[in-house]
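User: Could you check the structure of this?
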Amino acid sequence: MELALQSLLGVVAIPLLAFAICEDRSALDRRRLLVTILVGLGLQLTIALLLLKLPGSRTIFDAVGAVVTALQAATGEGMRMVFGYLAGGPTPFDSPRPAAQFILAFQALPLILVISALARLLYHWGVLQRVVGLFATLLRKSFGIGGPLGTVAAAKIFLGMVEAPLLVKPYLREMGRGALFAAMTVGMATVAGTVMALYATILEPVLPGAAGHVLAASLMNAPGALMLARLAVPAGFEGGPIAATIRLDNPPRSAMDAIAQGTIDGLKLLASVVAMLIVMVALVALANSLIGFLTSPLGTPITLQQILGWICTPLALLIGVPLSEATLAGSFIGQKIVLNEFLAYLDLARLEPHALSPRSRLLLTYALCGFANLGSLGIMIGGLTAMVPERRDEIIELAPKSVVVGLLATLLSAAIVGTIVWH
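Assistant: Sure, the predicted structure tokens are below.
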């Protein structure tokens, strides 16, 4: 109960932090502001209660987990056909340590390829447009926003931070400043469907129902990001066309063409993820070597993870992590900000079972589920400025704040979950 009250304090404090960095408080209408906060928190709490406390919710989590398992198994069949024992097939030799046969690049990451191909196929069949349209209508009516922003926010639950705004590219030029910032913030606060299943696969051994939790986190983060974005940049948040036509450059002409396009896009993403992991892990190792050398006179070497843990301890406390675990939990939050959520999830999955309580692992799963990191900053600026070069200065000005507010949105979702999960 005490930890739940600690999380409740975070639910109150996080919107206040967003309000503290508001760029134009004169643009905030008190009545509409109150409605926005209530709607944002209400939607997040409703999603959390439905997926975590509703009788039979375990069935939903099991069903989502079964889908991810089926996708992983199907991907494994294709990988073993091509790469044999490297992808988990029978080895041509006796292995004294079967557990050591797991190779991330061959047995987990290729899931990105299949998800990417399926997403493009669902777009070709019109399924993705209908699902996005349904969520967009809900967000538009709840927050009083225009169709383009509602569509971007809904699409971002399934697509990447560049792919989602690309669907409404013709509308970006006239989008209000607040709406543009909100679109950027939602991009930072959620993860793409192409990696959602991957994160669930990584976390499942240490967090039962991981697929359902990752999905719930991404769903909760979208309305939370809209609400906090309005607090930070209120001018131009509402308004715009009621509806937005979803468009995709070079749409597939057939189902086979959709699969081919999705596979090629997935291959580019897969290569980027692999390269990013190699470079980021190498940079962390170099940083730890340098920090260790500089702190060796102290007698106890210090690592980058420890420094990030100390800095982000207040954030861990804010979501409801107990004080005894806050520094360790803060290191994962800091790692997600400075590096990315993928590395943070990998390290969380490798953590000894007794190092963190199940509740803290659960809260971190929600707190880490977003693209708000320094690397994503460059990706977003590059993608959006290519789409609307005439708003380049405005995008560059708003981008750093979108990382901050996107992070606050993920922390808010974690804090809300902490108020209803006591142990």
